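Below sits my pick:
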Amino acid sequence: MAKEEVFIGSIDQGTTSTRFIIYDKHAQAIGSHQVEFTQFCPQAGWVEHDPMEILESVKTCVTKAVDKATADGFNVDNGLKAIGITNQRETTVVWSKSTGVALYNAIVWMDNRTTSICRRLEKELSGGKSHFVESCGLPISTYFSALKLLWLLENVDAVKAAVEKGDALFGTIDSWLIWNLTGGIDNGIHVTDVSNASRTMLMNLKTLDWDESTLKTLKIPKAILPKIVSNAEVIGHIGKEWLIPGIPISGCLGDQHAAMLGQSCRKGEAKSTYGTGAFILLNTGEEVIPSKHGLLTTLAFKLGKDAPANYALEGSIAIAGAAVQWLRDSLGIIRSASEIEELASQVESTGGVYFVPAFNGLFAPWWRDDARGVCIGITRFTNKSHIARAVLESMCFQVKDVLDSMHKDAGEKGETKNEKGQFLLRVDGGATVNNTLMQIQADLLGSPVVRPADIETTALGAAYAAGLAVGVWTEEEIFANGERMKKDTTFNPVLDEELRKKKVASWCKAVERTFDLADLSL
């Protein structure tokens, strides 16, 4: 006999794969499916996805996850109450509202083809690189959607023609998915949420609406932009052509904001997600804190139409887990990502090797798009274990750089500490299963790192938002994480303080070696 329950579904659309996870009332996963999709690199620094392939990956994941849960005796057809969506942020799509066809591949968040547009704007605008920071909290950078949209408007004839005809729609991946899920060319709903909108460079952080002055300066037509909604409200319903028609879509957050919610981060608490990149966010409550140390001011979440917005300081790292993929796919040093822990554990140190994965430049807190990757300190003594460990350390050093800036921006009053006076970093994402990586992180920070029992907090955060909007959970239940934390694993630092300081100084020297290398001859 089928088990009667209440279920919430979560679409987690990442940089390399899509997942659909079904949660029960106790926020336990009862069915899931994951599909990897293709990443295209047509030129050095260019990274693209096929929007139609992403859409198909969602269809496959929903079908397979529902089938699995049903086969296990769960009555998903009758019990599924809502769907939440979380997605890779900044990745930009423009499509035709009459045909539903994407007019160009999705330009991915780490793509740096817009470098020349950034330089041009920095020269033309009175505020230079920081011209829009006061309104949107973001510097002019290849990272953000507005620059990718400008490139499409300037370089793709199909996009230009569609805009002129009034047939173009712009969105990040959340907008693309919701439009298609709610009917597509048959009255699909064109929206985005405040967290994704905050990453375009076009939304005013205080009004939570598109900034008219920015749109005018960049000559971006407002008509192609989606409506901005909160993270937890009924946005629309799944269309009849999908396996789960009529189910409300009631939660939507960018992946890093979803992870914050999944980790139940209150004001003063921070999380770091280790995926393709690494992303550290500190909840600053209802206060917008401008960064003076290379971080971004952004939305954390807004849990309902009339709910107050929580803001955050964020440090974004372009290459984290992607460096492990590079070791596997480009160098062949490992055959699977999981092998890196065993390889790195064969040595106690990197033997003086420092690796900085500035493949497409450096994000926070450096913001150097002229940087390129370096590996220094190599001797005849160096072997692949030293390099593997240096790759793991590079992820942790970058997180430390961001947290150092975060501590300076937030100050003592802006951070929550435990009874020992320690600031705890909550961690999540696939790479955190690597115990060696987590111990290195604690050692380099000189403070504890806390890993939850369920490390897939991004999908959980989207489920929480969706469930909150339809009454499955209350905010009190979502943020009451005392019981959950009893199952967490804490990594405490054991590295000698003097050695830690020396290693940090060597890392900073290695980072400086990456600057001004973008024009090296091929």
Observations:
- The two ends are 65 Å apart (CA to CA).
- The mean pLDDT is 93.
- Residues 384-410 form the longest helix (27 residues).
- Residues 362 and 368 are 5 Å apart (CA to CA).
